[in-house]
Amino acid sequence: MEVSRLRSTVYSPAKGLALAAAVASGLTAHTAPPAQQESAESRAVAYLSAEVPRWRREHPCYSCHNNGDATRALLAAAAQGHQVGAALDDTLAWLAAPERWDENGTRGGSEDLPLARIQFASALGAMADAGRADPRALERAAALVASHQGTDGSWVLNPSQTIGGATFYGSALATAMARRVLTRSSAPTGRAALARADAWLRSFTPATVLDASSVLLGLGRAGDDAARVPRSRALGLLKEGQGADGGWGPYVTSRSEAFDSALAVLALAEWGAAPSAPAFSDAERRDAVRRGRQYLLGLQEDDGSWAETTRPTGGESYAQRISTTAWALLALLASR
Predict the structure, then answer these.
(1) Can you give the residue range of the structural domain that contains 124?
(2) Number of domains in the chain
């Protein structure tokens, strides 16, 4: 995997913070003009279309970030009419055979395997949404992902990380993403793993903004009573944590970051027109999405990317820039 080159920056919270389905967000007249939105998406697509195939040409492996997160974003963009050319051809051919994933010539160790499997399987799921994946490959991918599930029903990718990030997710986001993969499995082992993931998400109490977004993405629109409790808590955290600039950080009191803001926008957009929890009226949710979009649009770099969100903040990492950009593009596409 790509190696992050983090500067020695101390993180000090300051008061402030698969294929995403396109949903109607009901944005107000203060939303960015359509031309600006289209330009932002197009520039991000152009950036990722260059970077996705470049990694494999220059390195002896496929990257969970370029060929995972970024591939999902480009597939979502293509589904909404963006042209990606041949940028995904090699990646999609490789993703179609999950049995080859573990032979990937990565420079990472066994600790990278669960994340890689979740990211590649999520990209394979996006291929299925586009009608470009064999259901048998999805079953094999789901089995690989399920093999890393903990006894409590969650996925723990890096026990040393107290909160997730763009390239290491954290337990709540990893479980939400793994759950989405498992919904495509009809095998008994896959269905059993899905049930354990569902139970974990319903018993989990989100304490951070990143957890809150992850819980919303994991629970989807489940309407049972057990799902309403963590969802209500998650929506309350997102409402409290949105900064004056429209963005979110990993904690309620953190300064806003691109990755955390993208995840929050995506979660609130996917929640869509489902019945609102007490924390948010639907009008408040739409306004939160609008402000979050504006924050993301204002952060986009001239080359179409978003600067990497790192832990601690202010670091330099190509991998995290790719994943941050992918999540930002997914958020814009889902919240049009």
Answers:
(1) 34-334
(2) 1
